[in-house]
């Protein structure tokens, strides 16, 4: 099952450093988070247009997150196992009036 755009925007608000880490993976690998959305666009959308109130914001400053980020960055140094195709397709605009996402 796939999360809705609202759920992803909520997650971005709750775990901003994790969302940034996903965006880093997208940028380095050239693939998109979702076939229709790039996480970087969703982060920008949340900042510009607002996101659902996250309620609780989870701390990403602990040693567990630091270890995760280190493992992800080490994996990004390795060659990809497949050619990314999703990033080459145009995604849908996040909203009708946002020219930044087209």
What do these coordinates show?
This protein is mainly alpha-helical. It has one domain (5-101). It is 48% helix and 0% strand. It contains four helices and no strands. The protein has helices at 5-14, 16-29, 39-49, 63-76. The longest helix has 14 residues, at 16-29. It is flat. The model has no long low-confidence stretch (mean pLDDT 78).
Gyration radius, in Å = 14 Å
Straight-line distance between termini: 26 Å
Low-confidence stretches: none
Helix percentage = 40-55%
Describe the global form.
flat
Order of helices and strands: HHHH
Number of strands: 0
Number of domains: 1
By DSSP (H or I, 4+ residues per run), the number of helices equals 4
What's the pLDDT, averaged over the residues? 78
Strand content: under 5%
Largest sheet: none
Structural class: mainly alpha
Layout of SSEs?
Blueprint: H1 5-14, H2 16-29, H3 39-49, H4 63-76
Helix pairs in contact: 1-2, 2-4
């Amino acid at each position: 099952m796939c999360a809705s755009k609202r759920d992803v925007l909520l997650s971005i608000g709750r775990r901003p450093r994790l969302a940034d880490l996903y965006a880093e993976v997208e940028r380095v690998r050239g693939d998109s988070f979702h076939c229709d959305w790039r996480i970087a666009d969703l982060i920008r959308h949340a900042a510009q247009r607002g996101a659902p109130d996250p309620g609780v914001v989870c701390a990403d400053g602990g040693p567990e997150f630091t270890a995760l980020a280190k493992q992800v960055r080490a994996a990004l140094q390795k060659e990809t196992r497949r050619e990314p195709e999703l990033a080459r397709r145009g995604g849908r605009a996040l909203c009708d009036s946002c020219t930044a996402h087209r």
